[in-house]
Amino acid sequence: MDLHNRLKLAAPAFSYVDGRLTAGGVDLAAIADAARGPAYVYALDAVLEGFNAFRTAFAGQPTRICYAMKANDSVAILKVLADAGAGVDVVSGGELALALAAGVPADRIVFSGVGKTDRELVEALEAGVMQVNVETAYELERLSALAVERGKRAAVALRVNPDVDAGTLDVISTGRATDKFGIAYDEAEAIYAKAATLPGIDLAGVAMHIGSQIADVAHCAAACAKLRALWERLAANGVRLRRFDIGGGLGIRYRDETPPSIQAYAETVKAAVAGLDCEVVLEPGRRIVGPTGALLAEVVSIKHAAGLRFVILNAAMNDLIRPALYKAWHEIVPLVDPGDAPWTPAEIVGPVCESTDKFAAARPLPPLKPGDKVAFLCAGAYGAVMASEYNGRPRAPEAVVRNGQWSFSRPPRQYDDLIREQSLPAWL
Q1: Which one, of 160, 152, 117, 111, lies nearest residue 135 by Cα?
Q2: Where are the beta strands (DSSP E) in 285-427?
Q3: Stretch 120-138: mean pLDDT
Q4: Nearest to 69 by CA among 80, 77, 58
């Protein structure tokens, strides 16, 4: 498959114009030059297209689409989505603060997470979030007590673990009985009965999330069926709910996957809740932002050893950890169209002092020399948010593009930033 078709399938927001890789009408080399190091770039119009695809597919079914910001916490992305009517799913107090700062109304925020602290529960109460997805009986009791102390009521959905395998990587599956997430399915009814008696608790719904990068809607159908059966048993026992929260996790194409269409996903969910008087809540993240982002990097050096070609980049595992952590594949393309130049295998590595700092092995690439630039595609999800400053490497900046304009939404960091954020105790 040629380079242009690969772009069209995996990352349609990116294309070559006059031989140069662009997004949003912007030559990406300009961003790479300004960053003077690795940089992320996100195409905002493509983000909106992803959100609107969900909204269109779920038309006719009362639905709240709450973007899972753990995939990408760029405030520019949050603002664009909020302006379009999206809600947000947060999993920490820090994410809640960022979402509110970006202008997301609190009554469109779902607070999820398996280990919320008392401080975070209070922050959710004080903000007045739409819903807290409670994961343990202890958390439920603490939330009740904290709400009563403050004269508030918390809208709650219990996150139930349906014991359904999402058919994805073991390390990103979250809906099996052995996973740390959610309330055990066979204990849920008893905890709902308890919740109905607790002051300060408004039982709003039932929730689940079975995993990430889901490639088959059959897994979603099986989980929804179990959630519906629970809903109906609760209704028979007088527990009335109004929200059916299915989580997120719909996959994208990184290499040669054929992920389910959003329409097929929506039809599966609609069929699962047919006849129920409920509002569906869903929390897509990767599917909205994954294909819209890229990590830009520059070739530092070329090395030949043991019959291998090593392409050493200025980007590293601290910038994009997914290949080291998950053996994840990201399409890597040059910022200048190589035309008919031959593509030969290369080991693509970074400068960090770890053998795991390797993006790809035996990956075909055109001839490259120091100073040439490349882009890692489909890096809009779980890229910058999982970055670190290991080896004293300042975090990569993030830029957004739209209608021929671009700007850093997270500016480049300097060595002085690393120094300023530490201090010596007076007693040293």
Answers
A1: 160
A2: 293-305, 308-313, 332-334, 344-349, 358-365, 373-376, 398-402, 405-410
A3: 97
A4: 77
Alpha carbon distance 282, 115 (integer Å): 21
Q: What is the pLDDT of residues 386-417, one digit of tens each?
A: 999 999 999 999 999 999 999 999 999 999 99
Query: Can you list the domains of the chain with their CATH numbers?
Result: 3-43+290-420 (2.40.37.10), 112-284 (3.20.20.10)
**How is residue 176 annotated by DSSP?**
S
Q: How far apart are the first and last CA of the chain?
A: 61
Q: Which residues does 83 contact at the CB level (< 8 Å), separation at least 6?
A: 103
Q: Residue 428 CB: number of other CB atoms within 10 A?
A: 4
- Within 162-246, where are the H helices? 188-195, 217-236
| The pLDDT value given to residue 2 | 78
pLDDT tens for 22-41 read 999 999 999 999 999 999 99
pLDDT of 170 above 60: no
Token pair in block for residue 156: 């709650």
**With contact defined as beta carbons under 8 Å apart, do 261 and 22 qualify?**
no
Give 358: exposed, middle or buried? Use CB within 10 Å, 0-12, 13-18, 19+.
middle
If DSSP codes are grouped into helix, strand and coil, which group holds residue 374?
strand
**pLDDT value at 102 more than 90:** yes
CA-CA distance, 331 to 253, in Å (whole number)?
Answer: 10
Tens digits of residue pLDDT in 240-254? 999 999 999 999 999
Query: What is the residue whose two structure tokens read 């290991």?
Result: 390
Catalytic choice (66, 220, 353, 378): 353
Helix (H), strand (E), coil (C) string for 340-368: CCCCEEEEEECCCCCCCCEEEEEEEECCC
Predicted confidence (pLDDT) per residue in 54-67, tens digit? 999 999 999 999 99
Tokens of 75: 């405030």
| Coil vs helix vs strand at 291 | helix
- Cα 318 to Cα 310: distance, rounded to the nearest angstrom: 19
pTM more than 0.70: yes
Query: Is 353 considered catalytic here?
Result: yes
The widest CA-to-CA distance across the chain, in whole angstroms, is 71
